[in-house]
């Protein structure tokens, strides 16, 4: 496997970078056309008609699947499963996630997802019009656009594009996928969840067309009590910082606004299902939401309709996701077993598991600073001693670097 990794890295050692070209091909016209089609199904409520060919969640799922199937180079499957009877599911119901795979050299997975179901004012109303233009037609349009543009990429890691159902009924589709992935031993490096990413102006008139919120949890909730000593240092938090670095590397004027909490107060999203299963996952969400357009029956100024969207904004969020997803897909695996020697002393000694095809950079920052400030090249070594830098005064991490300069997100030293 190591020989394969070396060959892959050498084969990619070239001056031409595919990412800028992909970013330039993001189409506002295609994004809008996708949202228009999703809105045309009337309702995409999880409990709506599965058999009607033109209206309801079943028709929407079939169309989403068919759109992915038109893209050469992708494997498309329908992950069907039963929703058991519950408070938000009156009777057991068979539903489906759409799972799309772009195979890489490794089986490690980077994933982008959104939910295709919608809801009106009454969360149990499965018959009224529920356009779901922004929530979450915007996310599905973004995921489809990323798949279209990345299909010709030859990724190192496998990329999955996921359209889930049942978010409005309690994150049911994403929970099923994440739990199944955990049981099957799927190694998911990163999850980018996009939910409500298509509008720059809030219902109160405030506007932020130049940035998007990126939510990330602190302490991991999946059997990792060691994270409790440094609550800002979860893998999801490191993934959010990586988004900021990628935006800077590509010179984006459109910026990620890192929000160091799991989600908005009293709200939730599909990234939480992956967090709970132990995977690094973050949520992209517009800065100022229009609550008149969320979970509302269509009437007067209310309703999640396409006229309330900003497709220039959605195009920018798509470019940011595309850049991050592509960088992750082409990067080496993050380092493992990153440890600080806890013995007393004036220096900081850090070790990690090293791969011969990979170089490493050590990063550190003041404990009060949200982003990495300092770095040192460690070459291909699996350890470093930082002379005169006290382990008690900073937070430390290590980042993998490929022969072509692609880098993983930082893994904190513990």
Give the structure's gist in a few sentences.
The chain has 414 residues and is α/β, with parallel strands linked by helices. The protein has helices spanning 2-11, 18-24, 28-39, 57-69, 133-150, 172-183, 235-249, 271-276, 311-330; strands at residues 75-83, 93-102, 109-115, 158-164, 188-194, 211-216, 255-259, 281-286, 336-340, 348-353, 359-366, 374-379, 383-386, 394-401, 411-412. Residues 1-14 have low confidence and may be disordered.
Describe the model.
This protein has 414 residues and is of the alpha/beta class. It contains 9 helices and 15 strands. The strands form 3 sheets. It has an 8-stranded mixed β-sheet with strand order 1-2-4-3-5-8-6-7, with helices on both faces. A 4-stranded antiparallel β-sheet has the order 12-11-14-15, with no helix packed on it. A 3-stranded antiparallel β-sheet has the order 9-10-13, with no helix packed on it. Strand 9 (336-340) and strand 10 form a beta hairpin. Helix 3 packs across helix 9 and helix 5 (133-150) crosses helix 9. The model is unreliable at 1-14 (pLDDT under 50).
């Amino acid at each position: 496997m190591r020989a394969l990794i070396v060959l892959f890295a050498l084969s990619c050692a070239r001056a031409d970078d595919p990412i800028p070209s992909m970013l330039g091909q993001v189409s506002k016209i295609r994004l809008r056309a996708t949202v228009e089609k999703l809105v045309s199904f009337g309702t995409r409520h999880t409990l709506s008609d599965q058999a009607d060919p033109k209206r309801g969640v079943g028709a929407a799922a079939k169309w989403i699947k068919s759109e992915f199937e038109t893209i050469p180079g992708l494997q498309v499957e329908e992950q069907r499963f039963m929703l058991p009877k519950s408070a938000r599911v009156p009777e057991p119901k068979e539903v489906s996630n759409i799972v799309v795979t772009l195979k890489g050299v490794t089986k490690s997975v980077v994933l982008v997802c959104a939910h295709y179901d919608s809801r009106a004012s009454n969360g149990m109303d499965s018959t009224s019009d529920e356009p779901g233009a922004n929530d979450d037609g915007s996310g599905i349009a973004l995921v489809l656009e990323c798949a279209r543009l990345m299909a010709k990429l030859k990724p190192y890691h496998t990329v999955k594009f996921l359209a889930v159902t049942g978010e409005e009924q309690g994150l049911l589709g994403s929970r099923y996928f994440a739990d199944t992935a955990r049981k099957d031993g799927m190694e998911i490096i990163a999850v980018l969840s996009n939910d409500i990413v298509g509008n720059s102006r809030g219902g109160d008139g405030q506007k932020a067309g130049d940035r998007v919120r990126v939510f990330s949890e602190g302490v991991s909730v999946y059997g990792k009590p060691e994270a409790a000593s440094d609550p800002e240092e979860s893998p999801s938090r490191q993934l959010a910082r990586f988004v900021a670095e990628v935006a800077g590397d590509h010179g984006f004027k459109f910026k990620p606004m890192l929000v160091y909490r799991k989600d908005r107060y009293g709200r939730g999203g599909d990234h939480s299902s992956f967090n709970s299963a132990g995977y690094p996952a973050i949520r992209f969400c517009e800065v100022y939401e229009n609550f008149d357009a969320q979970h509302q029956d269509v009437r007067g100024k209310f309703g999640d309709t396409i006229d309330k969207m900003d497709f220039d904004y959605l195009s920018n969020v798509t470019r940011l996701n595309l850049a991050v997803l592509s960088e992750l897909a082409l990067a080496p695996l993050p380092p493992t077993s990153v440890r600080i020697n806890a013995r007393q002393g004036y220096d900081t000694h850090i070790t990690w598991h090293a791969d011969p095809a990979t170089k490493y950079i050590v990063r550190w920052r003041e404990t009060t600073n949200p982003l990495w400030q300092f770095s040192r090249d460690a070459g291909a070594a699996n350890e470093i001693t930082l002379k005169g830098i006290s382990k008690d005064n900073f937070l430390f991490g290590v980042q993998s670097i490929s022969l072509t300069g692609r880098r993983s997100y930082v893994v904190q030293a513990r």
